[in-house]
Specification:
mainly alpha, three-stranded antiparallel sheet, 60% helix, globular, AosR, DUF2017 domain-containing protein
Length: 194
């Protein structure tokens, strides 16, 4: 379950998730949204025109390592340029990443995922995405994998280390989730391009 493919009739991208898979994916996306807004750059309860014309965003890199990876410093050799770039772009980038993660939550709930999942529930969630929504999911899968990689300390060519962990090690299970999201991402890319 959980693999995306293109429906021949509707041309939409579809996937079927178990209730557990859908709930896990919703939880990951919800945590990402919360993280993006927790260390919020600037609260945006202003008039929309005022907000559009205000470039008073953050000027320094986020303290959280995941956010620092999601919003890297643009100019490592010019602190003033990096500060200006961040001030003009980070709020918009945060909003875009939060919207993409929210698209996952919305898609799963539209597919029938209830607010609370019963432990013994044999629920199956069918998700059907038009291409613009599929692109949002794809972007969010990238963000989720980056977040998980940072939290777990995943590095290039460390597959042997992860394979050596016992199955009951919580890090091994978390890495399995990282791999699972990567698998979803791969099937979605394939479905979008074929």
């Amino acid at each position: 379950m959980g693999a995306f493919h293109r429906d021949r009739r509707s041309k939409h991208l579809v996937a079927t998730f178990t209730g557990f898979e859908a709930d896990l994916l919703r939880s990951l996306a919800s945590q990402l949204v919360e993280l993006l807004h927790h260390e919020a750059a600037v609260p945006d309860d202003r008039d929309p025109l005022e907000a559009l014309l205000d470039f008073g965003g953050p000027t320094s890199a986020p303290e959280d390592p995941v956010l620092a990876r999601l919003f890297p410093t643009a100019y490592t050799d010019d602190e003033e340029a990096a500060s200006d770039f961040r001030r003009f772009t980070e709020n918009t980038l945060r909003d875009g990443k939060a919207r993409a993660a929210s698209a996952i939550i919305d898609g799963l709930e539209e597919g029938g995922l209830p607010d609370e999942l019963e432990e013994d529930d044999a629920l199956v969630i069918d998700v059907e995405l038009a291409e613009p929504d599929a692109q949002l999911w794809l972007r969010s899968f990238t963000d989720l994998r980056l977040a998980l990689a940072v939290r777990l300390g995943v590095e290039d060519d460390d597959e042997e280390y992860w394979a050596s962990l016992p199955d009951d090690d919580p890090r091994a299970r978390a890495h399995d989730v990282y791999d699972w999201v990567g698998g979803l991402q791969e099937t979605l890319v394939h479905a979008l391009t074929h």
